Amino acid sequence: MESKRQQKFASLLLQDLAAVFQRDLPHLFTGLPPGISTVRVSPDLGVARIYLSALLAGSGEGLLAAVQDNSKAIRQALAKRIRKQVRIIPELVFFLDDSAQYAAKMDAIIGTLHIPAEAPEADDAPAAPQAPPRPKLFADEDE
């Protein structure tokens, strides 16, 4: 479980990395810059694991390779943005977030399942339980 400090720092990194990708270094990516789905920070705030989403950017492996090749420039641009707010600029480790693709795969698998709906027969079906009568709270209350 992450501490409040880690969560705040991860939120700061998420916002500033998104700004770096969109404003400072858009020339590094062909097409759209990657989206950042999650940032996880180590307890000492020295290492940040950034999960990139490649839904709109195209090929995931090509995107991850481009980001990893330019990780030094990305870290320097991030340092310019957050240098007055933090003591140590974290080491950035990038991963490809495939949770959306996994969800689509599971949705397709569940969609192909054929589960027959069995209706209970009239003879074997138990009678529906009836609600107990409501007690009268006042003497002049009608039913």
TrEMBL record:
Belongs to the RbfA family. Monomer. Binds 30S ribosomal subunits, but not 50S ribosomal subunits or 70S ribosomes. Pfam families: RBFA. The gene is rbfA. This is Ribosome-binding factor A. Keywords: Cytoplasm, Ribosome biogenesis. It comes from Hymenobacter algoricola. InterPro entries: KH_dom-like_a/b, RbfA, RbfA_dom_sf. Residues 120-143 are annotated as: Disordered. SUPFAM superfamilies: Ribosome-binding factor A, RbfA.
